């Protein structure tokens, strides 16, 4: 059995390190920093599928791309896959405080959803994972990137930012999507 080579196309090295730790089996994953235009949509699966198609045309090697969104019930699912635009203007710290302030105390329910798209030129598959939880009243913890300091997964008292990578990966939407990818890749060997 030979090692399967995959490239993770992204400029976000934090996502790469998490995914590399989650991919199992006889698979080698390397980062490939390629600028790929990203469609604007609330739907992470739609964003990931489109990005994988575009990335494969540039890279022409088996690859994966990933998109994760934060869906807030009281805001009708906003910001979804657009969450990065709330965090980017003036940094994650201010962006996370902005997210906490947008959510009414009466309903802080949310979920995270991750879509990992695999493309090898012959097939394009999208694997999703979802984790339900709530938005904290204030950002807590600095052990995670992005919006992790404001998301408390159901059944836990800590935000992703307080949990650390190993604990987080056991319950995160990224971990769930990666597990589906692992099962798919194991079947292809």
Looking at this protein, list some descriptive labels.
189 residues; alpha/beta; Maf protein; 26% strand; globular
Descriptive account of the structure:
The chain is built from 7 helices and 7 strands. With 189 residues, it is an alpha/beta fold. The chain has a single domain, classed as Maf protein (Alpha-Beta Complex), CATH 3.90.950. Strands 1, 2, 3, 4, 5, 6 and 7 form a 7-stranded mixed sheet that branches. A hairpin with a 6-residue loop joins strand 3 and strand 4. Helix 6 crosses helix 7. The longest helix has 16 residues. The protein is globular and about 50 Å long. The protein starts with a strand and ends with a helix.
Query: Would you identify the regions where 5 or more consecutive residues have pLDDT less than 50?
Result: none
Q: What is the number of independent domains?
A: 1
Helix-and-strand structural type? alpha/beta
**DSSP E strands, number:** 7
| CATH-defined topology | Maf protein
Q: Tell me the Rg in angstroms.
A: 16 Å
Strand content: 25-35%
Count of alpha/pi helices: 7
Overall geometry: globular
């Amino acid at each position: 059995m030979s090692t399967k080579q995959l490239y993770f196309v992204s400029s976000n090295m934090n996502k790469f390190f998490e995914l590399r730790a989650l991919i199992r089996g006889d698979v080698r994953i390397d980062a490939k920093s390629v600028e790929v235009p990203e469609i604007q949509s609330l739907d992470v699966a739609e964003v990931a599928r489109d990005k994988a198609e575009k990335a494969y045309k540039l890279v022409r090697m088996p690859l994966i791309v990933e998109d994760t969104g934060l869906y807030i019930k009281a805001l009708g699912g906003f910001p979804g896959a657009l969450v990065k635009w709330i965090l980017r203007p003036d940094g994650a710290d201010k962006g996370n405080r902005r997210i906490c302030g947008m959510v009414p105390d009466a309903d802080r329910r949310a979920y995270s959803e991750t879509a990992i798209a695999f493309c090898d030129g012959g097939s394009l598959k999208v694997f999703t994972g979802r984790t339900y939880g709530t938005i904290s009243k204030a950002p807590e913890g600095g052990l995670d990137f992005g919006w992790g300091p404001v998301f408390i997964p159901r059944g836990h008292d800590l935000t992703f930012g307080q949990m650390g990578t190993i604990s987080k990966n056991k319950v995160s939407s990224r971990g769930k999507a990666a597990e589906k990818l692992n099962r798919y890749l194991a079947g292809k060997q």
